[in-house]
Amino acid sequence: SYVLTQPPSVSVAPGQTARITCGENNIGSKSVHWYQQRPGQAPVLVIYFDSGRPSGIPERFSGSNSGNTATLTISRVEAGDEADYYCQVWDSDSGHRVFGGGTQLTVL
Amino acid sequence: EVQVLESGGGLVQPGGSLRLSCAASGFTFDAWDMSWVRQAPGKGLEWVSAISGSAFSTYYADSVKGRFSISRDNSKKTLWLQMNSLRAEDTAVYYCAKDQKVHGMDVWGQGTTVTVSS
């Protein structure tokens, strides 16, 4: 089964670019999704199918996936982007869904 | 408005049972898989279980297999999670989510809290 590895924390200054990684062997062959969860709130889908952006999600959020690493990129970071971010895949062989351990994004 | 609303959480003793419900509205319920995802206090998201739109296929995380059962009634647009033999480590906020598999979980409820304690 998949084990998705994320850095526990990432810090970035306002206006800079934040990159959050999600690692697993050959993750590039899977569709990776990303969720934002602010404290006390439910998760929100911010990127689907590696790089798709749901309606209402700012263009500052983008995603990529290749080889053994998927990446969520947040450009021009704002204070409101401070949250926990989780990657997730669907294992079509087992039907299981797998979440990464989560990354806490801190805006300095 | 597209939404899902969980209910049924509460305090239960170890070894006890609880049934969670999730009421859906605003989308074609039977066209989509549905998942339960939980989050223990101060921890990350953990996928628990999923069910296909037709209810033909069900899937469970190893941590709950044999103790939890997922089901749905498409005529009532309702999803359930029957939780038996509950343990302290099942204490969490349980979320219901519309699950598009290769397109992610795009609709989430606000969650219902389950506390397993004596």
Structure description:
- The complex is a heterodimer of chains A (about 110) and B (about 120).
- Chain A has about 110 residues and is mostly beta strands.
- Chain A contains no helices and nine strands.
- In chain A, the strands form two sheets. In chain A, strands 1, 3, 4, 7, 8 and 9 form a six-stranded mixed beta sheet that branches. A three-stranded antiparallel beta sheet of chain A has the order 2-6-5, with no helix packed on it.
- Chain A is globular and about 40 Å long.
- The termini of chain A are far apart.
- In chain A, about 40% of the residues are buried.
- The mean pLDDT of chain A is about 95.
- Chain B is an all-beta fold and about 120 residues long.
- Chain B is built from no helices and eleven strands.
- In chain B, a hairpin with a 5-residue loop joins strand 9 and strand 10.
- The chains are: A mainly beta (about 110), B mainly beta (about 120).
Short description:
Chain A is mostly beta strands. Chain A contains no helices and 9 strands. The radius of gyration of chain A is 13 Å and the shape is globular.
List the helices and strands and how they pair.
The complex is a heterodimer of chains A (108) and B (118).
Chain A: E1 9-12, E2 18-23, E3 32-37, E4 44-47, E5 61-66, E6 69-74, E7 83-90, E8 97-99, E9 103-107
Chain B: E1 3-7, E2 10-12, E3 18-25, E4 33-39, E5 45-51, E6 58-60, E7 68-73, E8 78-83, E9 92-99, E10 105-108, E11 112-116
Parallel strand pairs in B: 2-11
Antiparallel strand pairs in B: 1-3, 3-8, 4-5, 4-9, 5-6, 7-8, 9-10, 9-11
